[in-house]
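Look at one record.

>
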Amino acid sequence: MNLRRRMSRRIFEYRPREYWERRGGTYRSDERKLERTGTTAKQLKTIGDALIQLKPRSVLEIGCGSGRISMTLASAAETYIGIDIAKSMLTQARACVPKPGCGWILAFSANLPFRDKVIDTIVASEVLLHVPPQYIAHSVSEIARVARTAIILDFFDLDFENRRTFRRVSQTLDSHNFLHNYPELFRTTGLSIVSRGELPELSQTCFVLKALKLGVSVAPTQSRSPDRSIGR
C-alpha cells in the first residue's frame, strides 16, 4: 500500500473524541512511565524556562490530558484553564491540580471558546501531532486568534524537515499521529517564531511564538466539526 493510501486510511479510521475518551481511563498510568524515564522532566524544564521569560498572567493548556504538566502551568500564572476533547481526561487532570480557581472546559483545538487575544499564553504540548491534516490549519489559526504568545512542543518536526526520513517515519506512525510542517503553518496563520529549542533525544521541538495578527481564515472545505477535530 502506497504512502498516500496509508495516510488516507489512518485519517478515516481515527475518531479523535472516541479514541481519547477510551484511553482516558488508563492514560495516567502510561504517563507515569514517561515520568520514570525522565521525559517529563525535560519537557517541563523547556516549557518552564519559556514561561519564566514570558511571565503570563493567564495560561490556557490545549489538550491537558490527564494533567501531566498541568500543575506546572497552573503554578506559573494567576489564571489557568485546561481544555481537552475527552471528559475522562479532564476528570483526571482536575484531580492533579489542587490549586483553586482553575477552569476546565471540554473543547476542541479547532474551535476554541474564547475571545480574540484574551489569553496571555497558550501551551500545547504533544497535541498538534494528534490533529489530522485536514484540521491542523484551523487549530493553529485558533491559537493565533486567542493567544498573545504560544508555546508549542511537539513531535516529528525534525523528521518532517529531513526528507530522507519523512517516508520512513510516516509509514511507522500510529493511527493517531501525524506529521505537520509547523514552520509553514505558523507563517500562514500569523504566528512568528520567537525561539526554537530542539530535544533531539525525544524527536521534539519547542516553539515559542508571537501572534502577529488574528488567525488567518482557512478554506471552508476544511471542516471544524467537533466530531472530527481534536483538542489533544
Summary: The longest strand covers residues 147-155. The chain has a mean pLDDT of 80.
